[in-house]
């Protein structure tokens, strides 16, 4: 795991657990921003490299400062403005960054509340800060793609041209994703008419429009979920080990570490089926790829599999002809599959 990933993971846990203590800008700086800058290779203890409370006379507003200015090769390249974690970031928070950006050699600006990081540059007009960020990420929900983009801001790899080469694509991709997300939750009248035009041929009354809006919203979500499920299945088939067949003996694997999350998941499954089958018959057998939950410790009687050793976690269910894996965002979501787990347990109850 890289230094950036390790740091982001630590920051993420800190924000999730202690966000209530980050009610001030200073708390956000100490708990989030400085560790974040360190992960990118900047010396936060060197005031000539990470300049706190940066001010420039040319701005014209006495006493106005930017929280941090990052110097690379003795040139100011990144400006950073911090807000309390409770603040919802908006264009109005860009005023100081906007003014300082135009009077320095800064090429990038970051606005953050400790949870969300908005990255800006001057794609629309030279030396004039854009009002729309080209890159946004939530520190509590980062991915491999986000880490890849952040690597470009590392001190050792900082290259303005390389970042700008992808900044425009990122900006418009981000903007379009926001539009799509809004359409999913609040389909516009025009969108509803467009997608339902070839399906519904009647008159578009107010009552029909209300009905179709709900249908479009549901269909939109289902299309996305079907696509995600299909892509995950393909990726798993291409990149993961072949899943052992049910009738193949499962051997204990060396160097297997059972995580606390796997233990809790096992206990949840065990509690769900206890009214269907004796809890003494529900056994956990951990493997490198997944944590298996078996009936009678028999690999021919799989109850569930916990695929938790990866960034996207899911549970494998066996109430059909073969294992079906379903994404679980939290342990509590296992309860959503209680009925299906009981159906599987019932198959083994009398055997």
From TrEMBL:
Residues 25-121 form the Type I restriction enzyme R protein N-terminal domain. Keywords: Endonuclease, Hydrolase, Nuclease. GO terms for molecular function: endonuclease activity. The keyword Hydrolase applies. The keyword Disulfide bond does not apply. Pfam families: HSDR_N_2 (PF13588). This is Restriction endonuclease.
């Amino acid at each position: 795991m890289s230094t950036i990933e390790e740091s982001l993971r630590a920051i993420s846990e800190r924000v999730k657990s202690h966000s209530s203590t980050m009610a001030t800008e200073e708390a956000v700086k100490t708990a989030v921003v400085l560790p974040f800058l360190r992960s990118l290779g900047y010396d936060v203890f060197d005031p000539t490299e990470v300049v706190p409370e940066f001010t420039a006379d040319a701005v014209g507003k006495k006493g106005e400062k930017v929280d941090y200015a990052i110097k690379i090769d003795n040139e100011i390249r990144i400006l950073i403005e911090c807000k309390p974690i409770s603040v919802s970031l908006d264009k109005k928070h860009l005023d100081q960054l906007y003014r300082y950006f135009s009077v320095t050699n800064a090429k990038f600006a970051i606005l953050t509340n400790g949870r969300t990081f908005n990255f800006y540059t001057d794609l629309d007009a030279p030396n004039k800060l854009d009002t729309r960020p080209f890159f946004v990420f939530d520190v509590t929900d980062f991915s491999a793609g986000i880490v890849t983009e952040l690597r470009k801001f590392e001190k050792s790899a900082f290259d303005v041209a390389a970042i700008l080469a992808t900044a425009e694509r990122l900006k418009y991709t981000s903007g379009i994703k926001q539009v799509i997300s809004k359409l999913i939750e609040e389909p516009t009248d025009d969108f509803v008419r467009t997608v339902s035009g070839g399906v519904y041929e009647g008159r578009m009354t107010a009552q029909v429009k209300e009905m179709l809006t709900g249908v479009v919203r549901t269909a939109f979500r289902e299309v996305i979920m079907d696509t995600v499920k299909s892509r995950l299945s393909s990726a798993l088939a291409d990149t993961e080990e072949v899943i052992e067949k049910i009738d193949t003996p499962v051997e204990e694997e060396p160097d297997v570490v059972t995580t606390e999350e796997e233990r809790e998941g096992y206990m949840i499954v065990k509690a769900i089926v206890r009214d269907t089958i004796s809890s003494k018959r529900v056994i956990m057998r951990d493997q490198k790829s997944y944590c298996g939950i078996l009936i009678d410790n028999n690999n021919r009687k799989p109850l569930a599999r916990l695929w938790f050793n990866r960034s996207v976690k899911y549970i494998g269910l066996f109430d059909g002809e073969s294992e079906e894996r379903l994404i679980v965002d939290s342990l509590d979501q296992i309860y959503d599959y209680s009925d299906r787990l009981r159906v599987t347990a019932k198959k083994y109850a009398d055997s």
